[in-house]
Amino acid sequence: MALDRWIAMIILLICVAYGYAAFFTMDDTLAPFMRRNPIWPSTFPKILSIMAIVCALLILLGFEKSSGEPKPSEINYRRLTDYKLGQAIALLGLMVAYALLLRPAGFLLSTVSFLFIGSFILGERKYHIMILASGIAAGVVWYLVDRVLGIFLSPLPVFLANGG
Amino acid sequence: MLEGILIGLSTAFSVTNLLMVVGGCLIGTFIGMLPGLGPMSIIAIMIPVAISIGDPSAALILLAGVYYGAIFGGSTSSILINAPGVASTVATSFDGYPLARQGKAGKALTVAAISSFAGGSIGAVLLMIFAPALASVALLFHSAEYFALMVVGLSAIAAFAGTGQVIKALLMTILGVIMATVGEGALFNMPRFTMGLMDLQSGFGFITLAMAMFALPEALYLVLDPSRSKTEGGTNEIKDLRITKAEAKAITPVIGRQSIQGFLIGVLPGAGATIASFLGYAVERNIAPKEEQEQFGKGSVKGLAAPESANNAACTGSFVPLLTLGIPGSGTTAILLGALIALNVSPGPRLMVDQPEIFWAVIISMYLGNVILLILNLPLIPYIAKILAVPRNFLIPFILFFTLMGAYIGQNNSTELLILVGFGICATVLRFADYPLAPLLIGFILGRMLEDNFSRSMQLYDGISFIYERPMTLGLLVLAVILVVLPSYRARRARARAEGVADGD
């Protein structure tokens, strides 16, 4: 089975769960006076779930043939290992780490290390330029966001910041 | 109308807004020039900045400037290195790159700049005429018609977005609408589909989703396939920006025709700049005299001028449904709509009456943006082209960092960053399998409005009867069905015929 039909199946499962919630669980909590209303919170989701299930089934059952060979400009997922898959996964992992460390480690430290490690993963080895570029970028962005736009970004690690 | 223009002039010429135009155009040009980054990603990255400005006209002016700049930058990279950063400038590279190979890069850039300028300006004038007229008609619309109109818009987008794969695009659209129902709706005051998670109480963040759908997959594609961001191939010397009188005479009628045609295509939902540019190129090739037809694809100035004026005019045209009906016709205008909603502006026919300064300032700033792009870019092109040499090792971490920052600023919550990465991976996988992503985001942005209008008409008519009691609603809904069914029917028939031929042999 091709990837697009696998995806259609996953979407179908999600939509079935969504439809189940809309048809069978949502209306129980509805207040009696709201039941007189022609529209319930579940009305629109019910329609949507039916339409989505029909579309997903049409794709899953192969009513719409996919265009066959991939376009040259697109990435051919069947040969995914030919591409820089390791780098991409490492960068995604780095983004998750950044998300988890942003609060505890503070903006400046986590950003500088994110940019540094990011370019390191991509194969850059000019360490002095990397440090300089990421340091300047982190400083400038922090200044713009925290001072100019006025959105609080705790700059320092938790143990150094005062109540941050 | 004159009053409106005056209000627009006074708003657009304030110091901040002028800075916004210049800044937006510059940023757009720079980023748009980087191969592999489209206008949608750039605008998605710029939205948090625009929203935190707080003033809706300034924000919209900035984003519109970025949009134009990105299209212009895209054409520069397609001419110089045959690497279109934007789908709508692919047609530009057909004749632009051969010209650059012949050592006429400067001339090609000038032709592109002039055609873009003319296309954009003619588009702005047409917008000024069309939008108020359409808005006054739209004021008669009822919520039932709005509901139907949005359905038409969504199905048109689905019909055009999928390359012969309408069902996939349709599924993505519906999925977007489904995602919009997560969280607390305005009409019911009860949380839906949150699975008991506090973080989903207010629904998915629009900026997070926009980043995850466009910026992140594009960045990941650049990582996966380094050849996408290749910058070698001859950033040759750019000199002699002048064009001859004969060339100017040849491209003038082309620009005139393609600006109008491009604008009209841009107004249609779902069509947009890409189709306008390809169609413009094809039309000009067909009506050119025999000996000039040979030149197309080998470095014809006409072949360069046609897609350039058409795509810029179409960009302007796509603002018509956004500003008058509040219904975006393309991914880019959908993102702009999301930004406007975040700024408490509801675009639609009332916009011209309630907040004329926003409406007119945007139109005036479009004109201004075109002038600025022309002035900025003609003399600066040789220097700007240097940015094409930015090493990707630095570029990609920065793009990723900006997507993270955008999602964080939008919600001030680091859970949002995990949602961003999760959706980004899903979006990349969807893109592998050729599922179009723009319909999902458009569905998400329109979803809440769609449900609100549907609920309102249900309440007014005490049931579903509004669909057949209002002829206009019925007509629009029938149109929507035709839009979806027709392409897949035709594709099936064509395939059946092709298979029949194969069997017969």
TrEMBL record, chain A:
UniProt keyword annotation of Nucleus present: no
Keywords of the record: Membrane, Transmembrane, Transmembrane helix
Organism of this sequence: Roseibium denhamense
Residue stretches spanning the membrane: 7-24, 44-63, 83-100, 106-122, 129-145
Keyword Plastid belongs to the record: no
Domain of life: Bacteria
InterPro entries assigned to the protein according to its UniProt record, in alphabetical order: DUF1468 (IPR009936)
Protein name, as recorded: Tricarboxylic transport membrane protein
Sequence ranges assigned to domain DUF1468 in this UniProt record: 6-153
One Pfam family per UniProt: TctB
UniProtKB/TrEMBL annotation, chain B:
Transmembrane segments: 6-31, 43-67, 79-97, 109-134, 146-162, 169-190, 202-224, 263-283, 327-346, 358-381, 393-410, 466-486
Domain DUF112 span(s) in chain numbering: 18-441
Keyword Transmembrane listed: yes
Keywords in alphabetical order: Membrane, Transmembrane, Transmembrane helix
Name of the protein this chain belongs to: Tricarboxylic transport membrane protein
Natural source organism: Roseibium denhamense
